[in-house]
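Shift notes (night). Ran F-box/LRR-repeat protein 3 while the centrifuge was going.
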Amino acid sequence: MKRGLQENEPEDGGGPSGECKRTLCEPTQERDVEAEGISWEDLPQEILLHIFQYLPLLDRAYASQVCRGWNLAFHMPELWRCFEFELNQPASSYLKATHPDLIKQIIKKHSNHLQYVSFKVDSSRESAEAACDILSQLVNCSLKTLGLISTARPSFMELPRSHFISALTVVFINSKSLSSLKIDDTPVDDPSLKVLVANNSDTLKLLKMSSCPHVSPAGILCVADQCHGLRELALNYHLLSDELLIALSSEKHVHLEHLRIDVVSENPGQQFHTIKKSSWDAMVHPLSQV
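Came back to this:
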């Protein structure tokens, strides 16, 4: 039995099934966009910039080839001020499969725009080497913050110390305006800290370097002597000494607001050295706000 027509259904020329078919094939949003004359290439640069900030490096490069507007967004300096390199095992293979000059070209063109950079790597040596290769290319950078984050050990500790230090000092020497440095679980050493201080003593405010076995209390004391603007310090207990605690409490040195001491054994069965109570008292009483 044929059902009767509803009040708003046409008697011929399409019927309800025809209307349904058009609805499925022509999404409402698409029709609205076409009606208003808006296309993806007409998106404002501010919106494109916001979208591009969430894209991985290679996806940004692919997106920049869509149209002229997207290519302009890809090269906006604002896009490169804050950047995080994620170099886990799949990402390392992913980067190697990319055109070999892609990262080098981007770093060469945008390194002077980079200000806030972090590297997140897994435990593989391959990931750490990829991070060092990028660091060594930042010869025209002026970084304000640098973070080397190992999501699992050993990562950077697997690299030859000279290779890691060589890459890191490229940033220390060329930036000259570092305010925040996070280098936990790395083979940084006392000589490299001297390079850091020589080029960034006026700007350094935060230094986190827990589990850095090649740094001595003398290296931290060098930082305390020169970086009077340092306000936050995080280090491992094995770096502490009576002399260092007394220095950190002296008005001639830094005026810390936050001090974090990680009491973690680097090796099984490791014995912790003893700090005199008088040294702790010297640190605590003048700096009750820490």
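Residues 1-28, 91-98 have pLDDT under 50 and may be disordered. The domain at 40-80 is CATH 1.20.1280.50 (Monooxygenase).
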